[in-house]
Amino acid sequence: MEVTKSTFPVHLPSILHDLSVCSFVALDFEFSGVAPRQTGGGSRSKQTLQERYTEIKKAAEKYQILQIGLTVVLEDVETGRYTLKPYNFHLSPLIDPKLEVERTWSYQSGAVEFLLKHGFRMDAPFTEGIPYISRSEQKEAISKVLERHNRDIENRASDTSSPFELGESEAESVEFLLTVRKMINAWLEEGERAPAYLNIPPPSCRVSVNGETTVISSLNKNQKLLVHKLVEREFPKLVTIGKSTWVKIIHYDEAREDAVHQRRMHKIQERCQQQTGFRWIIEALVGGNLSKLHDAAFSKLVATAGHRTKQEAVKEVADGIRTRLQEKRPAVVGHNLLTDMIYLWRCFLGDLPETVGEFQEQLHKHFPLLIDTKYLATYECGSINPVASLTEVYENLKDTEGPEFVIHPDHGKYNHSERFHEAGYDSLLTAQIFLKLASQLPKAQQSDSSNTSYTGSEWSQHTATSSDGIDNRNVSNLGGIPPTPAAQAETSLQALSLSEAKAARDSRVQSRFAHGNLFDTLAADDTIDQIDDSNVTGPSNTVMNEVKVQEMVAEGKLIPRFDSPIWDIYGNKLRVFGTAERVFALGHESPEQAL
């Protein structure tokens, strides 16, 4: 599905709801430039992970994310079917000038040539792109208003003035300021008899320029700026208010100025909220604060209000989505994820840490589980780097067995065409690759049968109508809410040993991963089952017991649960060929542990 800046507000609440109940999401980006490709050979030693990180960091600080692909994957544990919802977004590099934040970005000729070759429209980010503001940019915009207010308070508290002087070459401006200064002093000398304000220029203002008297009826932009600066420097007990063609001067009043400051702060915060745009989705993925997104944005998700008012029902839905995203963030899947994560951080969160170790720790705090399909596809590949681009991995896995999945009927853009290197399409391929690889992982059948807690991937299938008022069959097959502790406890009592199922699965799976390179052994048959609206059914009210779920995992019908120990082996490790360490491990792990 193509989402533009005009349709983004319509789709955002459904996307956020899906993120709160989905199994996982797949991400892909297209950039305006990338770090230079490293060439091997000769006596040159491999880069360290720190050197590679520094190199990509430098590129991320210079270039822009132009396009984002996001595929949300919902799991039905009763039918063993996954529903894929791919989205394609262009990201606008432009920012509201009234925020007074400068954003510098660049294009790399090689990247542009690559994008054009694959059908990218260079105008799309500007004409259709979704706006955004990073956390650091928002902080800068607000801090500028605060700094201006605090500086104004300090200047007035000191009650000191300093002459506002211009160079000799600016004779006309000097004469203009001399006239303005005389008018202000004459107004002040009138004391209580003077009007409450002074307009510059007043009616029929006469200014001497080069010995000739000129009547001024309005001010240009430069003259208005001169008046503002003159009053700020020489008359700290006065305040200027800019108008269209003149400047109004009034006496300083602390209470009034505090009210003006509060209005400015409210206005800048509203502008930041309007500019947040795509960052709402990133905040959802990293467990950020969604409280500033008005409840009204979620109103279209409420099918019926029942005994509540519409406002109460909408608030309950909004609070439920926010709570679930805070408590259980979805796993994030990508291919060759390190570059994507560095650019994502710089684009939406702020300045990148200087050291790769600090970035590993900070990234893990924001993304509890990252899964790199390139790492999965090249696990234990030995010292020779296999060919592992997204396209090549997909082609090698095209005929391989995996869990059943369908593409949601509202997201059929890619049903009949291949759009390699379009972010939305590549994220869809990444999701499909992950489903196939995850169901075949060695030890996938060895998940802990005593662990009966439900993960976010299972939440979406427990109720057809959730307690927060969303009819999950009517709202894009959205899903429901987590089971109650009582339901979990009842399911826990039903858990039985899965040793036989595990053993059967082990003999089948282990043969596939006996080689160093997975691609040598992958061969089976799988097709994407296209569906229409009549085939889309809502989740069942029946809570699947853990035994059946684990059996389906062992049979490869479902991927391993994300709280399974298997992800301690395959999760949070990003493949970085060309470096001495070869792996970027999130958290506190050493490179040796990662390997």
* Uncertain runs: 444-543, 589-595
What is the CATH superfamily of the largest domain? Ribonuclease H-like superfamily/Ribonuclease H
Main pleated-sheet profile: 7 strands, mixed
Q: What is the total tally of β strands?
A: 14
Which architecture name of the largest domain does CATH use?
2-Layer Sandwich
Helicity range of the residues? Answer: 40-55%
Number of domains: 2
First-last Cα distance: 38 Å
Structural class comes to: alpha/beta
Task: Write down the Rg.
Answer: 30 Å
Q: How many individual helices? A: 21
> What do we call the CATH topology of the largest domain?
Nucleotidyltransferase, domain 5
Determine the mean pLDDT. 79
**How does the overall form come out from the CA principal axes?**
elongated
User: What is the class of the largest domain in the CATH system?
Assistant: Alpha Beta
Beta-strand content = 5-15%
Oligomer: single chain
